[in-house]
Amino acid sequence: MEIIVRKYGGTSLDSIAKIKKIAETTKKSIDQGKKIVLVVSAMGKSTDELLKKAKMLSKHANTRELDLLMSSGEIVSSALMSIALQELGLKAISLTGFQAGIDTNSTFGEAQIISIDNKRIHNEINKGRIVVIAGFQGYNENFEITTLGRGGSDTTAVALAASLKAYICEVYTDVEGIFTADPRIVKNAKKIDYLSYEDMLELANYGAKMHPRSIELGLHYNMPIIIKSSFENKTGTIICNIEKLNDLQKRGIILNKITENRNKVTGVTSERNISKITLHSIPDKPGIAAKVFKPLSEARINIDVIVQNISRNHKTDLTFTVKNEDLDHALIIVQNKSIKNINYENITSGSNYAKISIIGSGIQNTPGYAAKFFETLFKSKVNIEMITTSDIRITCLINDTDLDKAVNKVHNVFDLFK
Amino acid sequence: MEIIVRKYGGTSLDSIAKIKKIAETTKKSIDQGKKIVLVVSAMGKSTDELLKKAKMLSKHANTRELDLLMSSGEIVSSALMSIALQELGLKAISLTGFQAGIDTNSTFGEAQIISIDNKRIHNEINKGRIVVIAGFQGYNENFEITTLGRGGSDTTAVALAASLKAYICEVYTDVEGIFTADPRIVKNAKKIDYLSYEDMLELANYGAKMHPRSIELGLHYNMPIIIKSSFENKTGTIICNIEKLNDLQKRGIILNKITENRNKVTGVTSERNISKITLHSIPDKPGIAAKVFKPLSEARINIDVIVQNISRNHKTDLTFTVKNEDLDHALIIVQNKSIKNINYENITSGSNYAKISIIGSGIQNTPGYAAKFFETLFKSKVNIEMITTSDIRITCLINDTDLDKAVNKVHNVFDLFK
Question: In A192-282, which residue ranges form alpha helices assigned H by DSSP?
């Protein structure tokens, strides 16, 4: 029989009562004859608490040590979940990333899965056991524990689903699914029934909570992903291609009628807490960008948007964004000798910006969407600081104070509440 | 250069401030040219907290899952300690029991170390790194995580010290060393400077806090063990044989003058919270004891003292003690059909007893010690419920309410305060 992989996030596991409840839900599915593999995140805020302890000891803690530290949170969840399942009379076993055979490269803190040796998992399944796998973690060739980056349990789940040839990967979380906008900002935001991998990738990168690599893996392996609420029996958001959607509907796995989204804008995403840094008048020659971003990446500062316009007189301006809390550290680094050597004229920076994006297949190539987006911001007296686009996304950097207003207006203009 | 293995217990690691302090102490030793391997327990009460969560889910949680769960606590400590050391500019690396090559049998919850493959540890030491090893844990031949039982980090430390041919194993704790009696009960209890392994074994089994198997290993490998305070610079208690003691004093490793204890009673130990169960008039034939204790051990109930006197008319009484909290569970088991089949006449039980023991090499074979002990209890109007002895220990079961009085009187009578 085919396998379902189910992933439960930290908010779904933040108490013993919730773990019990998930065990009961799992029992119901088992009683219905389903074959289930669980992937679990760390309980509630426990990863944050571990990180906080590490930060009290060092601001630049070694990532190899941090990975070993943080991997413990998921191990705790998986063992507790297995105990909860056994208490209900089910056969269960918890496995660490290492025991589950999740082989990664050695990029601590952002490791990528190279392969999954699923022999042990299959053995356990063949013994009739529900396998509960600690998400977010793997091991490298030297038996070092690695982690896949924050939110990495999503990626564990989709990778396992692909490896085990599951027919679906269900991602359980504290929300009903993916919304047309952040429901905390837009009251009439609507849950999206169906998304293509491409749209979800942009949504995942630009606000909605899914580990982006999990969506890439879903796309690569053609693995359908459902995002749904852990404790409400609602249909959630399904992410797959149209052929697979039809197939799942035909087999009765998806019961609600989903039609392809005709409105090309599928959602408005937003993100707060952004700072920008501009290096003015840098020489427009090869290798400059690398010189700037390599030391930033070595300091583990996450760069988000990068904008560089065409040059005048062989000079150009380079702007990029970081999280507010990384601004000071990033400024110290770009003022360092090695970067100063590239001879920029001066640096400006600012904090408390926000990003607003519209997402939808083909919108960048269809006339009118960008214009309508910019016009809406203009009419709402929202100043646009920066613009960047992809094939299926248009993003503006605006002042944080304008964000709520902007998201609501844009959500309305593109009729997303309907 | 020779290695020192240092073990820090949970109370020495119950805050980030204490972890920092231990890192600083370690740095001082490294600056003095010492080569150090650290073994750490879980922070403060974290193992208890994990166990509490598991108990909320199941009263009979699977020991394989419990071991995986509990192993996470030591991993957290080791990673944090390594980060703290690195922050001081030292080279350090934390290793799990698996990474440290601590190979055990498969008795989850009470696993025994079979061998240590110390290749990885030596590699790290050769790179100039301080190796910080998660105590209490190992792995079996199927790559399952095992634990050595509560307090097992002591055993990890002594086993590693033996494997690495360290010249000493230092066990740091929240007390100054081993005392002639529990200082909470006896105000003028004295710290013991020197103990033989044999005496310490009895002390460790009968009250003083050390994992008994760590002492057995020390004896087997002739590894000197010092128990001392983490944060006070005091000499502690050294456990080794006399030849080694002379050797360590000659080499200046132990500076204070220690003479062999002439008083044959080295300490009075005590333990509260004890219940007893008696099966009356059981048939005195082979196999009966096994029939009683096997189901109790399978239920993971720790049996402490067992007493069975000579029989009359081929019948005898069998008494054993358990912890107060295990009494109800134990009674259910001995009333089960399989045990009932042995045809005991009836069962009696009682709770809230305490154990008091005197410890000292040869006291059991030297006339006078036992008599003096019993006489002291009698004169103090303390009733003796049961007596058991070993070569170097005499133990009485008494009422818990009499314990403080009894321990103080006995401590005085044997001149232990001098």
Answer: 197-205, 212-221, 242-250
